[in-house]
Please model this.
Amino acid sequence: MSQTQAIVRVFMQAFKSLPYQEKESFLGELVKNKRYREDLIDIAIIEARRSEPSRPFREYLAERRKRESK
Model:
């Protein structure tokens, strides 16, 4: 386990042990920060869509060019 992974595990254990109100307060502060909020939203979207089929980026670009040229 790397040092980063160890720190994350300790942090998560500490977070899990907090009372609900303190967890809520911490998460509220996290979401107030624009950069962290955007990162959290991105992570949530990625997790929600992880099981969806993917397609090659070039295919997407070709489809987009077709739509824009109409």
